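Tokens as discussed.
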């Protein structure tokens, strides 16, 4: 492509008609609106309660004690960020959901900017919107009061920094890269895997510049801080909650990719293999930009292998970290790879420099993305219907507050949503040991007075857990029985100790 052609194309892309910004704005507003509507209908569940109670502390000592309790079983950055923010703004779970929505949108915009640096406006726009509109993972976590939206945004920021040409890297670039990797590692334990692979891609892309030039010093520094923190946290945390089953069937592996791209998830690897990433992978003839392109493309391919690797490990070792939300950074990789494929296809077209062609692509991509978003929204709302939503069954109906019954719960999934919804006066949590009592007391001082030891039911509270009414000679009729949970006939009956 001649220099005159690039100049002509640059002028076109700067024109108001060809700018993707208005179209991206339309998509962003729709994504925001649909996510807010869905969040209003979403039932509260236990993991979101972990986030809320994990940041509700009066001082920093209680906060770190909560982190070390092991309930959240995560590195501290997300919770520390919101703990500090909670002293400025009083959080509710709905506030944390809105925060997640902003992080998802920020990540999408950063993905667009990264792809634009490498493949131009048009390719980046098409690739970003096609994935963001189809990804169940992104839409689901845009209304989730957990750290995974922040995880996605941190991943997108990391890739964006790698996408910058050498001439655009300011004097603070190394500090920004170090910060991005440190945050990526401190949001989730799998973050260090993505960080190491990103650094490996960068080192491989720069190996011709010499050993020391290719050495990822900023990334290594972030790991040297993160690994001791990991070891300290894991040595202090209890694993009593890490026993719930995680999916690891072959269909779960396939669905992790297909939930992001559907049919396109099959086409992308095929196109990548057919096109064979070479030095011509980028439109730009600038060697620095070409180097960034190769670096980010290699990074993206390596990131796509993480779920497969973890899936294999879950079958050959007792460690099972296979959960779709743990791999949300691959959405960034998929956007980059799709943008690259679109760029390759556009280069084949002789109409690429036509204003009419560009407007047609921008408009049709926007309409198609709106269609995908509305379909995904419909499926999400359908799944949230009370008759099909498991979490809806775990929360008592509001009419229960009209009664005087107290409720005693086995299990976090029952206690925390009901405690958050209806307060401390009607909810008690039955814990099985003194150790668990200590763990939950450290996790949140707000619930400490609502914990009841199983072996002290009779001796301290004069309540006996049973599925039938005790003998009338022992039954204390001055106190009301306590219902154990919403779907169980088991009651805690007041008894008189002989």
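Sequence:
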């Amino acid at each position: 492509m001649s220099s005159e052609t690039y100049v002509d194309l640059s002028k076109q892309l700067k024109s108001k008609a060809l700018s993707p910004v208005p179209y991206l704005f339309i998509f962003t507003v729709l994504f925001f609106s649909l996510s807010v509507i869905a969040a209003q209908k979403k039932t509260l569940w236990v993991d979101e309660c972990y986030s809320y109670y994990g940041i509700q502390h009066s001082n920093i000592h209680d906060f770190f004690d909560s982190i070390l309790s092991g309930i959240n079983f995560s590195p501290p950055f997300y919770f520390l960020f919101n703990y500090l923010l909670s002293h400025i703004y009083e959080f509710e779970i709905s506030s944390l959901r809105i925060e997640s929505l902003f992080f998802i949108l920020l990540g999408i915009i950063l993905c667009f900017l990264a792809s634009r640096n490498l493949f131009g406006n048009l390719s980046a726009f098409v690739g970003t919107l096609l994935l963001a509109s189809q990804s169940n993972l992104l839409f689901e976590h845009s209304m989730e009061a957990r750290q995974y939206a922040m995880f996605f945004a941190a991943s997108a920021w990391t890739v964006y920094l790698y996408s910058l040409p050498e001439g655009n890297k300011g004097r603070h670039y190394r500090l920004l890269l170090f910060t991005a990797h440190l945050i990526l590692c401190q949001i989730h334990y799998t973050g260090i895997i993505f960080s190491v692979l990103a650094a490996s891609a960068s080192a491989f892309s720069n190996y011709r510049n010499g050993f020391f030039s290719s050495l990822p010093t900023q990334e290594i520094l972030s790991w040297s801080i993160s690994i001791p923190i990991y070891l300290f946290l894991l040595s202090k945390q209890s694993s009593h909650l890490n026993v719930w089953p995680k999916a690891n069937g072959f269909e779960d592996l396939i669905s992790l990719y297909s939930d992001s791209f559907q049919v396109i998830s099959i086409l992308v690897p095929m196109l990548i293999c057919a096109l064979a990433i070479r030095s011509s992978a980028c439109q730009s003839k600038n060697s620095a930009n070409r180097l960034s392109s190769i670096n980010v493309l290699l990074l993206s391919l390596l990131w796509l292998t993480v779920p497969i690797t973890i899936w294999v490990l879950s079958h050959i070792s007792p460690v099972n970290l296979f959960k779709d939300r743990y791999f949300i950074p691959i959405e960034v990789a998929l956007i980059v790879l799709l943008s690259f494929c679109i760029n390759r296809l556009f280069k084949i077209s002789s109409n690429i420099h036509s204003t009419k062609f560009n407007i047609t692509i921008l408009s049709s991509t926007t309409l198609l993305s709106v269609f995908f978003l509305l379909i995904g929204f419909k499926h999400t709302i359908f799944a949230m219907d009370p008759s099909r939503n498991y979490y809806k069954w775990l929360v008592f109906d509001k009419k229960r507050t009209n009664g005087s019954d107290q409720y005693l719960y086995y299990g976090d999934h029952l206690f925390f949503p009901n405690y958050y919804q209806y307060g401390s006066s009607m909810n008690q949590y039955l814990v099985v040991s003194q150790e668990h009592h200590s763990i939950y007391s450290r996790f949140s001082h707000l619930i400490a007075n609502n914990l009841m030891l199983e072996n002290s039911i009779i001796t301290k509270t004069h309540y006996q857990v049973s599925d039938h009414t005790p003998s009338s000679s022992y039954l204390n009729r001055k106190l009301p029985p306590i219902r154990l949970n919403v779907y169980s006939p088991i009651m805690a009956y007041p008894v008189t100790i002989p």
